[in-house]
Amino acid sequence: MTAYGQIYHRLRKNKNVTLQNVARDTGISSAAISRFEHGINDITLAKLDPLLAAIHVTRSEFFFEHDYARATTQEETPMAVRNFMINLDMPFDPEFLNQSEYSSQDADVVLATIARRVTLFHNNPTQYNLLLLADYRALYAFLKHIHGVSADAELAEHNVGILQHYLLNVEDWGVFEIELFISASMFFSPPDNLQMLRIGYRKSQRLAASAQFRHLQFWLLASDFTVLLARHDLPGAAQVLTMLQQQKSDITLDGNVRVLFFTGWLSIAQGAVTTGEKICRSAIAIFRTLHDSRSERIWQGYLERILKDPTDGLILLSGGWG
């Protein structure tokens, strides 16, 4: 049986967080954490939550990693592992961004957030705080750019580099890494974006073994599809759409409908407006058949906007589930 301490040790090392950093963040001694990791002592649930927060892993994700490791070490077939994970009751309700357009965000609000993040980082210079600070700084520079206001290009490039270095070098992508990429994907050049997307998709494959986590890979691809369209990178968007189509059997009916809509959206962007609109409307009709009036209304609104300009900056950070 795989011990919880072993899983914590692997996740901590994967995040490049030292024992000293965890001890400083939690108030739990390095010796106590080390004994937990090596299976010498157990730890209470009350102490587990701050330990997980120190390495930016949710409790649900931690128990998923434990159960997944337990299943895979039994040398089960991939299908048996998947069935094992699906039968587990692991509710997962992450707080994702619901913002659908970067342009609607107020740069001054982001600047105020940066000021708070600077204070947090100075008081507690952890990798987590550094990454969030870099993300907000990159967002601020990006917003200034799209509003036609000059920003410190060198500083922006430095912060994007921090995010890119972390995402490329971390061993596995979990919830935090997927969230981080989605929030920062607009800042990367299209070639870098696609490179990191493919790496992240590969490094998060184990999440597909869980019914609760499987949608995250769809979310990762779907969000980036809209980002690449907003960047006018139609070949890149086509590559991501192909990845979405290849995983259709692993996603929900709603997910399949969204992939159908994305297919029409790309066709419209490529100039085949009549064909693309027909495909999009067929997807919307499925929502109507399912009596999902909310989704029907939302995606009808998306289509009206896409028909005006398919690459005008409509970015679905939630992959269409926001």
From TrEMBL:
Residues 10-62 form the HTH cro/C1-type domain. One of its GO terms (molecular function) is DNA binding. Signal peptide: none annotated. Pfam families: HTH_3, Rgg_C. PANTHER family: TRANSCRIPTIONAL REGULATOR (PTHR37038:SF12), TRANSCRIPTIONAL REGULATOR-RELATED (PTHR37038). This is HTH cro/C1-type domain-containing protein. It comes from Schleiferilactobacillus perolens DSM 12744.
